[in-house]
Design brief:
four-stranded antiparallel beta sheet; two-stranded parallel ribbon; 6 strands; elongated
Length: 267
């Protein structure tokens, strides 16, 4: 995939357009954006060819003509830091939704077992609710013992809890609940990890823009997140935007294409 990029650079191509087809354009775009000044991703609806025999070569020639005459516009593609941050937030949203679905499955299993916790409390997976479910899984079936695990305001509802916990919870329900709670715990851990990464990206970027002053509005940011630290790199259009006289007081290390602003250890 690097060969086409080198071929385009050798011929001093400054504008490349490609049709957006699912996710297949992404690896090509990532390679070309580092070598070509302008890389356009064009909506497939805007590049419909005239009826007739359809080939990749003919489509490429047709797309080149549309771009040459200014008949198509590029789709909005965020810069690399924006795409990486978007990937984190979108995946976190998916994990949160999956956690919600797993919680609903847990509620159904409890209802099937005759455990009516949801009729007494609006939320089942609270601290005391989790302790009751864990006790049920461990083999405790006495409603009075389970109801005494209530905490806070739920202490006033112990009589209702005794009735709600008098079900037919058995080993089959315990197996299902144990598996579902494990998936919920894994989802919670993933959500916390992604949230921490997102917050660090946002905090580091805000601090970096503040340190760079007026230069911060004209810089692009790239993140390198690992288990130990978060690396933030600032890319500028021209080295003159960040002269050494500005970089030195900030303690910045000038590199080939940008400036490393901060590298923080994850606490």
């Amino acid at each position: 995939m690097l060969l086409p990029a080198d071929w385009l650079v050798e011929r001093e191509v400054t504008l490349v357009g490609m049709e957006a087809t699912g996710v297949y354009w992404k690896p090509v775009h990532w390679v070309l954006e580092g070598a070509i000044d302008n890389v356009w991703v064009i909506n497939a609806r805007h590049m419909r060819n005239v009826p007739g025999r359809k080939t990749d070569v003919a489509d490429a020639a047709w797309g080149a003509q549309l771009i040459e005459h200014g008949l198509v516009r590029p789709s909005f593609i965020p810069d690399r830091p924006g795409r990486e941050q978007r990937d984190l937030t979108r995946y976190r949203k998916s994990v949160i939704e999956e956690r919600g679905r797993e919680t609903q499955r847990l509620h159904k299993v409890l209802e099937d077992a005759g455990v009516k916790l949801s009729s007494v409390a609006s939320k089942v997976l609270t601290k005391w609710g989790r302790e009751m479910i864990d006790a049920l899984i461990a083999g405790q079936r006495d409603p009075e013992v389970l109801a005494e695990m209530a905490k806070g305001r739920m202490r006033s509802k112990i009589p209702e809890l005794k009735d709600a916990l008098a079900g037919r919870f058995n080993a089959h329900h315990a197996l299902l609940c144990r598996a579902m709670l494990a998936r919920i715990d894994q989802a919670d851990a993933t959500i916390d990890e992604l949230t921490t990464a997102i917050e660090k990206l946002l905090d580091a970027e805000a601090g970096a823009r503040g340190e760079l002053g007026r230069y911060g509005t004209r810089a692009a940011f790239r993140w390198d997140v690992t288990a130990e630290d978060v690396g933030l790199t600032v890319y500028v259009r021209s080295p003159s935007l960040l002269p050494a006289v500005i970089a030195s007081p900030l303690g910045l290390d000038v590199i080939s294409r940008g400036v490393v602003v901060r590298r923080e250890r994850v606490r």
